[in-house]
Every structure is written in structure tokens, then in C-alpha cells.
Amino acid sequence: MPQPPTLKIVEIFASVQGEGLRQGEPAIFIRLAGCDLRCSFCDTKYAWTGGKTASTSRVLGKVRALRKRYPADWACLTGGEPFLQDIEPFVDGLKKEGLKVQVETNGRTFRRLTADWLTVSPKPCRYEYHPGFRRRAAEVKLVVSKTLTFETVRRLREEFPGSVPILLQAESNEAWSLAKGRRLLGRALRQGLTNIRLSVQLHKIFGLR
Ligand code: SF4
User: Fold this and answer.
1) Distance from the CA of 189 to the center of ligand 1, in angstroms?
2) Is 51 a domain residue?
3) Range of the domain at 120
4) In DSSP terms, which residues pair with 26 in a beta bridge?
5) What pLDDT is stored for residue 63 in this prediction?
6) How confident is the model at residue 3 (pLDDT cuts 50, 70, 90)?
7) Which of 20, 34, 94, 107 could cysteine-pair with 120, CB 3.0–4.6 Å?
8) 36, 74, 206 from 64: Cα distances, Å
9) What is the per-residue DSSP string for 93-108?
10) 142 vs 19, 21, 111, CA distance in Å?
């Protein structure tokens, strides 16, 4: 007999989207366990391993309960790396609950999903991603780390459609990263790259999760 779909979850919580174009919007966050990368700047290292296995319907029940107290319109699947798990039944279930669904991914593993918003965030050192995301990403988010180069920004600008914004996301809102983001944006403007934007971690400014 087929088993019901399960997910490995680290945490579920209500907060406000702090990064990217959806900044400032209330959302229910579902953090999935496991990641295929080990970024030095990762601020969710606790999600690399572990997590609790639960059926998709149980996780949906937890989201439903949380939403009674915090009636957000959006759910955000984050990690870890959500695309390493079979999230399709869960995304479909969230949509049936009337939620709009954002998924944040490092872009290395591709699945077709009914999600409303894909945030693709290629990571160092190679900033590789599956080309299937090029036509599906709503935004590309680049952490302005010590290793991010202008050449990477330029390459990704050339590879993704011009209508997809590339966000230069300050690493942990650090002063050196903000300054580097400004420099990268200035160079992008001078060299004719379009739809490049600055971004900070808004949730940290507001003292949210
Ligand atoms: S891809 Fe994301 S979750 Fe994975 S190590 Fe890098 S920053 Fe952390």
C-alpha cells in the first residue's frame, strides 16, 4: 500500500518576509531539513541535518492552526533546501487552503511546482543552478558575500530574463556587505545591466525571526 507523503521539518513559525521583493509581508514559514550546500554565511545551519518527519496532512494541520492566530495570506517554504524533498503534495495542499506559496531554493535541484513565487538564490563558489529555473524564477537573490564577484552578477543577469530582478542581498546586514552591494550596483548601472536591486534583511532590523 502506498505510504502517505511525508516531510522532514525543522520548524513552522509565523513572521514577516524579510528578504527579496516580498519583504514586509506576513507569512507562515515552513523550514525543511537538509541542504546539499554548506555556505559559510548560512544563518540556518541548524537546518542542515535533523528535523522531524511528519505526514504532509499533519504539517498542513499545523499551518492551519497557526493561521487561526496569524491569518497570513502567504506560506514560505524555506530551509535548508526545500527542493531536496518531495514538496509537491504539500504545495498543492497549501494552495487548497487558500494560501499563496513562495519557495526559496538554492536552485540546484529542479522540480515543477504549482508555487506562486520562486526565489532562486544561487550560492558560491560556482553559483550553479538548474536552467529550468530561468523561466520560472520570480526573483534571483544573491547574498553579497566576500566571494560574490561582479562577473557572477553579470553572468546571472545575462542568463535570467531581464524582467526577473536580481537582488543584491546584504549578508547579515553587515556594513562591509552593504558597502559592497552599493559598489556592485553602481558598477552594474555604469555597465548597462538592468533590474539589479539592493536588499537587506528586514526581519533583523525589526527584531523578527
Ligand atoms: S544553500 Fe541556503 S540553507 Fe544551504 S547552506 Fe547555503 S545558505 Fe544555508
Assistant:
1) 29
2) yes
3) 6-205
4) 16
5) 98
6) confident
7) 107
8) 29, 12, 25
9) HHHHTT-EEEEEE-SS
10) 11, 13, 21
User: To which residue does cell 497570513 refer?
Assistant: 72
Q: Which of 8, 10, 19, 35 to mutate to test the pocket of ligand 1 (most atoms within 8 A of CB)?
A: 35
> Which pLDDT belongs to residue 29?
98
pLDDT at 1 > cutoff 90: no
Are the C-beta atoms of residues 80 and 52 closer than 8 Å to each other? no
Inside any domain, residue 1: no
% of residues, the chain, pLDDT over 70: 99
**How many domains in the chain?**
1
**Residue 136: CA count within 13 A, CB half-sphere:** 21
Query: How remote is the CA of residue 174 from the centroid of ligand 1, in Å?
Result: 18
| Centroid of ligand 1 to alpha carbon of 129 (angstroms) | 13
C-alpha cell at 48: 542542515
**pTM here?**
0.96
What is the average pLDDT value for the chain, to the nearest integer?
96
Distance in angstroms (rounded) separating the CA atoms of residues 174 and 179 = 9
d(C-alpha 88, C-alpha 163), whole Å = 26
